[in-house]
Amino acid sequence: MPSFMLKYEYFIRWNGWKIFLLLTGITVLTTFTINDFFLTEGLYYQSFGEKLAADRIAKVIELTMKWQWIGYITTSVVIMIRICFAALCIYIGCFLGNFNIKYNDLFKIALVSDFVFVIAALTKLGILFLFKQVSVLDDLQFQPLSLLELFGKGTVDSFLIYPYSLISVFELLYWFVLAWLLSHVINRSFFNALKMVALSYGLGLFLWVLFVVFISLNLT
Questions:
Q1: What whole-number distance in Å separates Cα of residue 95 and Cα of residue 107?
Q2: 160 neighbors 143 (Cβ within 8 angstroms)
Q3: pLDDT band at 33 (very low <50, low <70, confident <90, very high)
Q4: Taking the mean position of all CA atoms in its chain, how far away is CA 148?
């Protein structure tokens, strides 16, 4: 335990921006690789050939290629929002539980834990290269080891697609990493920290999912 705590204190002193840039860089590079190898003109024609005229498809391809860089910037924004959201939820949980924890420490915990989603992205890339046949654009919109993949997108109501895609092995692993790191900050057991993660971040995530489902129901 003491040796780990020394390593943990060292981890706390890491530069958060460097970690964030590494996290974002790997994620963007993975996304770029998927787009470069699989998002071809032929894939667009296969996906929309029966719905749109050839000139309309060409226009879609042109606009997609022109504004693709916005997607990479958006990726970094989404990652930052996800990290801030997790850190804030746990901070509120710690505050209500009378734990005197700095938000910056919780932000760094959420930042490091987010590498679980990098593993998820790399897993998706590996599946695309080795196992999955990509025939249409929809084939790229899958979440590995998720409940959605277990049931199949075609069998799930549209408003449940997001919750089903969120429930996955990687989301569960993310909770475990959050709890493992948090346990050394609050000096509690892993299971106590996991309970706090569930009651804080888990509750916040549940409310967010309810909001997304509500919006989806009102748009359909």
A1: 15
A2: no
A3: very high
A4: 15
- 121-141: burial string, b at 16+ Cβ within 10 Å, e else: bbbbbeebeeeeebeeeeebe
Instruction: Please spell the DSSP secondary structure of 88-146, one letter per residue.
Output: HHHHHHHHHTT----HHHHHHHHHHHTHHHHHHHHHHHHHHHHT----SGGGG---TTB
Q: Which residues, including other chains, have CB under 8 Å from residue 144's CB and lie 6 or more apart?
A: 120, 123, 124, 127, 168, 170
Angle, helices 115-130 vs 169-186, to 10°: value is 160
First CA to last CA across the chain, in angstroms?
A: 53
Instruction: Supply the pTM of this predicted model.
Output: 0.88
Residue 109's domain comprises 2-219
Helix, strand or coil, per DSSP, at residue 168: strand
**Under 8 Å between Cβ of 47 and 138:** yes
Give me the number of domains the chain comprises. Answer: 1
